[in-house]
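check this one:
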Amino acid sequence: MASQEAPRNRKERRAQAKQHSNLDDIPLAHPKQRSPKGKTLIDIAEERQLLQKSSNGPPSITTTRINPDGSITETPETSVSSEEVSTPYLNVFLYSTSLILLHFTLTFLVHHQFGSERPSLLPLVLSSTVYSPAPWLILLLVALLHPRASHPLMQLVFAAMAVVAGAWLVQASNDDPYMAVMKKAPALGTLWVWGVVELRWETAAACLIVTGAWGRWKGYAFW
């Protein structure tokens, strides 16, 4: 019998392979499921209690390495202390700085509005920051109240502060003489803004509505 002519190019080889291929010739079988001979990583983690969550304090961080010989090396990392978690110093500093700048801005505005002469910037900065207890009081209040602002009791405190400071500022700016307004407006305006910012938006909107309704009831005009 004459031998079959060999394919001369890739196209002929593909056609010949397609003619002789049959899916029924491929054996079908499930892969063999072999159980691991030694301990798995999950078994080792359960033995060392690495998967259990700690209920006391912040969770600790441990780096686990598997050496080439199969042994395990654990390296505990420095955990964050509870004091660092409960006292965000950078956040308190930035918050206090913003409120101090707001207090200075309001001081400049009332001096520009009610002052007998145009205020000088440097003396005003010194009188409202260096020679005034306001920055230190703001820093102390923010350090005490801001880290606990999300607590329901503190939300009530900030809501009361927003309503009282806002109503007092509206009353002072309409009824008090200009010297009293120059003294009261910066502090009351800073407390008002701070109280509103610390609140949830629903509570903040309600406090602003209460202050506006009180002003309308007293007969004050807002424009």
Residues 79-85 have pLDDT under 50 and may be disordered.
